[in-house]
Amino acid sequence: MMRSLALLLAAAVPATAAVAAPPPSAEHTRSYAPLFAAEVEAAKRDVEASIRAGINVPVPKDPGGGFTHEQHKRNYRIIFEGGQLYRLTGDVRYRDHVRDLLLAYAKLYPTLGPHPAAANQAAGRLFWQSLNDSVFLVNAVQGYAQIRDALTPAERARIDDGAIRPMAKFLSDGSPEVIGRIHNHATWACAGVGLAGYLLGDRDLVDKALLGLDKSGKTGFLRQLDLLFSPDGYYAEGPYYQRYALMPFVVFAAAIDANEPQRKIFDYRGGIVLKAVRTAIDVTHDGYFLPINDAMPDKSLRTDELYHAVAIAYAATRDPAFLSIAEGQGHTVLTPAGEALAADVAAGKARPWPFASRLLSDGPDGKGGALVLLRDRPTATGPLLVVKNTVQGMGHGHFDRLNWLYYDETGAVVTDYGAARFLNVEAKRGGRYLPENDSWASATVAHNTLVVDEQSHFAGDWKVGEKVPTQQLASRLDGPTRYSIAAINGAYKGVAIRRALLLLDIDGLGNPLILDILRGTGGGRHRFDLPLHFSGQIIDSDIVFDRKLAERPVLGTANGYQHLWVDGVGSAADKAAGKAARLTFMQGNRFYSYHMAPPAGARFILAESGANDPEFNLRRQPVLIQRIDGTDSATFVSLLEPHGSYDASAETVVGSRARVVGLDHRRLGDADLVVITLAGGRRLAVAVADNVAADAPHSVAIDGTAHSWTGAVGRFDLAKGGAK
Question: What region holds the Alginate lyase domain (predicted)?
């Protein structure tokens, strides 16, 4: 039997901790821990302002960012906050305002048809897409649950039958093409429908949310838990959408646990809900989500979705590391779980989050590749090499297999564009994804991976890409030599791509080096391009560029190339043995030198995004492209070296010149050998074998001396100027 949800919808604590909402006449003068007290005061300001403004439930007409869109968003927030404030204070003004808002929706909602601003998504009723209607219901049910028992039977019936049940019916039986998907839109729909079902005591709605419209289990919330997450809790669409999808997952899971504890929902599939929360925190740098796939770069842990996730995860686990995340967020939620979390933060129980290197498998069976996070220190802001060897990422995925990014204390150094979108900015096509999201942001050339014949991976068809997994061949997550080795066959017909990315700690250098060995192999003659998108200002280069500053030609005509202005084309100035082409740039207070040992005959193209952009939608960002033409295979060896510092206030510069003075690549037998020479003559050799088996023996001769290792990667310190 389903139990009352007067409190449980908002709480991720054991049911025994739940108490009835206070009687209407009760006035509470409770004192709260600072984190929770701040939420209470902020909510009071919001709701008091709404009470003063009066009920405003407009007929929907605007797309994202427009007045009616934003007003309905404000309203569901007020319903949530007002309900929680009534539970906490017993102030009947909060109850009555929430009631009046919901009564207004009960009057309006039955009159609505498909939203007039609907475009390329399933139309909602209150919003241009049904996704937002689901978000409305998830929030509104949680607020309504706190006042429902304090209303008259007639008021309850009007709200139940005029607003909550019709919304749930529309999002279930009325939207089979949405709720029946394995997708974040369906997760929000399932959560809204299921929460409404628990609140109304409607078993049919609950079962449809859990098991799909036909109740077979082939779709629905539980099936989404099976298919949308890898065994490590990595979400199919990437970190940005993991953040967004977490709220319905955790809020509905908390309600399931409260109403049907026998399901043991937090133990389901090896504890996948809680794994997903932990992984969501891990796929951040300095609190910001890694902008993989369709992602906005400004989304961080400081969002409502993660406030709920952290509070519910802490309630379920009592892991004090979650408290440190809450401290960093500076916020929590107005629920019993949020209150308990805030109290423990105030009691000093927080412990640091254990940031570490991780290999996050992708795909429901974990066999679709991986997102590899290589860190050399357990901090949120330290050096982080991100290696994207994942599956496509469904419709929000980009064509960027074997892509990489790099972060450190200065922020994003080797970058990813993310999505071309101005979220909810009405002037930018209603806040929807822009045309340039397809023509630029998702194109392969917009990423740091191999482009063949100026085409995107899988010819730009994500449905084809979704069927072709990436092969995560080998990795090491600790020690002075951390690495990821992966391959993809099928991104281009007849071309195999293999890439090793290594994070190298070297005594005497303040920051690790990032070594990249990428090999493309195929039949016929091809053009191979390897872009590097980076942040910062170019300082100098030993590449001799033929400057194109006056005419600034466009690099190509399609597949993202039409959006690149060419500023210069050049070749290496010094091709002597052991030398590499170099480009040095400055980001924040640090210098970065990108050393390249490309194939013979390679050219270098310095370009900037923003061409063929009539609505000025694209950010202007630099890119350096290594290009080789007319070959059946190519190996690109590159090294990113962070170095030095710049202090603007003190007007001092230290270490602006690169310490790496040589980068030499040799193909020896079944291995790639790279020799790195530092200023002063110190040399380091790194060997990456084709056979990555952990027990496979290998050896190479360097300067007449044999060096042996076992496994995928060997590393050797060499004597200055000769063999060790």
Answer: 83-282
